[in-house]
From TrEMBL, chain A:
Organism, scientific name: Flavimaribacter sediminis
CDD domains attached to this UniProt entry: TM_PBP2
GO cellular component, one term: plasma membrane
One record GO biological process: transmembrane transport
Keyword presence, Cell membrane: yes
Membrane protein topology class: Multi-pass membrane protein
Keywords: Cell inner membrane, Cell membrane, Membrane, Transmembrane, Transmembrane helix, Transport
Family classification: Belongs to the binding-protein-dependent transport system permease family.
Name this protein carries in UniProt: ABC transporter permease
Residues of the ABC transmembrane type-1 domain: 63-251
Localization annotation: Cell inner membrane; Cell membrane
Keyword Transmembrane helix appears in the UniProt entry: yes
Transmembrane segments: 7-32, 66-86, 98-118, 130-155, 176-197, 203-223, 235-260
Automatic annotation (TrEMBL), chain B:
Main location, first listed in the record: membrane
Membrane-topology descriptor: Multi-pass membrane protein
Domain ABC transmembrane type-1: 56-262
Family: Belongs to the binding-protein-dependent transport system permease family. CysTW subfamily.
InterPro entries documented for this protein: MetI-like, MetI-like_sf
Protein's recorded name: ABC transporter permease
Localization, UniProt: Cell membrane
Lineage: Bacteria, Pseudomonadati, Pseudomonadota, Alphaproteobacteria, Hyphomicrobiales
UniProtKB/TrEMBL annotation, chain C:
Family from the record: Belongs to the ABC transporter superfamily.
Pfam assignment, any one: ABC_tran
GO annotation, biological process: quaternary ammonium group transport
Ranges of residues in domain ABC transporter: 5-235
InterPro entries: AAA+_ATPase, ABC_SmlMolc_Importer, ABC_transporter-like_ATP-bd, ABC_transporter-like_CS, P-loop_NTPase
SMART domains per the UniProt record, alphabetical: AAA
Example of a GO MF term: ATP hydrolysis activity
Keywords: ATP-binding, Nucleotide-binding, Transport
Name of the protein: ABC transporter ATP-binding protein
Amino acid sequence: MTYRIHPALIVFAAIVFFFLLAPLVIIIGSALSDTTYLTFPPRGLTLHWFENIFEMSAFRRTGITSFQLAFAGTALSLLVGIPAAYALNRYRIELPSWLSTVYVLPILVPEIVFGFSLMKSVTVGLDTPIFLTLLIGHALLVLPYSVRVVSASLASFDFSIEEAAISLGSPPLKTFFTIVLPNIRAGVIAAFILAFITSLNDVSVSLFLTGPGISTLPIQILAHMEQFFDPTIASVSVLLMLVTVAVMAIVEATLGLTFLTK
Amino acid sequence: MKHFRSWSLALPATLAVLLLLVIPVASTIATTFGESAGPFAPYIAFFKSGFRRTVLFRTIEVALITTAVSLVIGFITAYVIARMPGRLKSIAIIAAVFPLLTGVVVRSFAWLIILGKNGILNDFLIWIGAIAEPLSMLYTEFAVIIAMVYLFVPLMILTLVGVLEGIPNDVVEASISLGASPAATFRQVIFPLAMPGLIVGAVLVFTGSFTSYATPQLLGGERQMMMGTFLYQRAMVTFDWVGASTIATIMVVVTIGIVLIMSRIARRLNPMAV
Amino acid sequence: MTVSLDIESITAHYGHTEVLKDLSLSVKAGELVSLLGSSGCGKTTTLRLVAGFLPPTKGRIKLGDKDITRLPAHTRNIGLVFQNYALFPHLSVLENVAFGLKQRGVGSDKRRKRAGDMLDRVGLSPYAERLPAALSGGQKQRVALARALVIEPPLLMFDEPLSNLDAKLRIDMRVEIRKLQRANGTTSLYVTHDQEEAFSISDRVAIMNAGKIMQLDHPEVLYQRPANAFVARFVGFENLVPMKVSERDGDRVTAEAEGGGSMSLSQDSLGPIPDEFVLAARADGLSVRRAGEGLPVTLGLRTYLGRAYQYQCQSTAGELVANGPLSDPMEQGGAAVLAPHFEQCCILPVE
């Protein structure tokens, strides 16, 4: 670089990184504390609170529901999102320009408003099963990631390659899977990861859609916190952070983390 | 049908959004205008009530402060990251991404531990002798703001690192070769070129904090009710769906209004997109 | 104010890689010198060192009598023209040109006037209020040129300024750059990978390879009398034939190629000939004949050039390229001799 940065700025950035990471370290520390209340630094070390999570059926059940929702919701959003992204890029002139705005509505409309409206119109209005409404909510919530991230990678895809394959005798649908999909692989993986994490961590949409017997992990954590203030929550948080680490490892292995700033 | 193929591919996603998002949200908004007391009755009631006005203004205030603080912190940090050598830069980006991928509940929860009566911040302040008795910092506007800043700074950093890295190096070098000092180059070249990114970041943070639920719920509680928590309370505790829909409509109007206005400004400021 | 530029035995590194080794170069006051070479040869590095964007590990850079080696880049007062124009996208054309004046504390009215005059000189006055994005490539480069010239720098540097323009515009622009440079008498350093561009625009050209200057001279000399095999190949001598002197008779020398074929050469036209040397010739400089004195070859593929036929020839010295007359097309696989036109050949030392 042409010019060095002022040392004061470097110090400032270091403090910011401390501010970003210290709270997470504090959670890990409190999860290991051998006390019945939350404290940091931990007094005595124990893994007891981790065992506790698995003994509490509420965490186990909602954890499973959350992962099911994240997988199914993300898959559903990609299932309708990839064709939409393809159509937007391949047939740009045929489709109206407002269409791409439609697909970002789920992040444009406040999540909590979306959750509330879905509860009113679908759960109550149509009397749908709770899991189905949750699935609809999550799939729609993450649809913008599917469409936009896949679109971004289709934007740099050269469609003449697809035409070349078709001219060589490959049928259109097969061409999509053998030629287009492998070339937008990075975009699909990125979309999957962003969507999955968003769904897994969602509070505002799920808030209104959970019901008797079916809840998601973040909602369960919130409910637990209102009654107890023990290290169980910290240890659940640590487990969720481990999921994040796993996801980042996947991103790093497949795409490289720098793609996140693009 | 002329554009059969393009439409058949785009239709499932389009229908899903229209039927399951646009119609329900539109019906929420419509609810507020169907009152027998007159079309604007719920809004008149909302703005007549001192408590509800306070909630709205508090939410706007918290969102504005969060946005301003995140902008300053995010911009300086992103500027330093953008100038780091390759390896250090990846580490810094990982450090910023990690909190972003960790859930809102987990990240807000950390501040419960830090700011509590027996939390580490109180312990620390007593230890250095700054205070004698623990302060009650939870369930204050300060607690909500600090947790929200914590929530949104990573987003701001990532947005701005992308923008700063997009500024071509030779434009910066051109400025230097023409005699502009590092400070002048920053003021006259880098900052104006980062402006559209600052606007995008500000919109993301403002709308995000304006409509948030988990953070105000955990750190503000009943005492620091904000629009998100207020909406939930109206809908699920008092079952006042018209009142809840009114809050929802105000949230939609503010959010979409800000997005439209700011994206228009950003477009005007973006010289690359002529 | 015209001053000279002296680069004195500069060494530079990128990380741990040495990109320039002990490089020296002098540009006389008012002269335009080009650095010519393929990518990675160190030409752009040299320019960045002079600009102050890269600190040298060793050596000294002097502008006139002033040592600028350790001077911060923004205080060097050097006009730079970039390959990608590097215009400020958020400033109007006029503001772009006035930018350097603003840094020098020139008042608002005065700098608008001077920037306006400079835009006039490059023919862009009507575009003064536009943003750079609204201009064509050629217009952008004119703005970049005006922006560098308006600060009246003692040294102008160009980094591949024309490589993003189309062929026709490239020729117009290089004439324009040369005219402006001549009119101002500004000492200039010009980096390019385009031989024709370098030769047409420069007083002298430095041909670079692997961080070293292979030869620095007037374009005519480089083109006709390359000093070594690298430069010879670079300027289009396709045929390099190693030879040995077998007989000397005053000015006349008889030499033999490895594997047969002898010819007699004149030191009068070719200069002094050492006992072992390399004969360098372009395709034009070797004539294909059915018989006579010259290098024996087997003819390969024949292509039609319009003014002549060109043959790929197989000789004991390797693959050679030579031209033959249109009046006498020869068949592939036939035997022939290549006779040099000595006025178009040159003698290189063995390396």
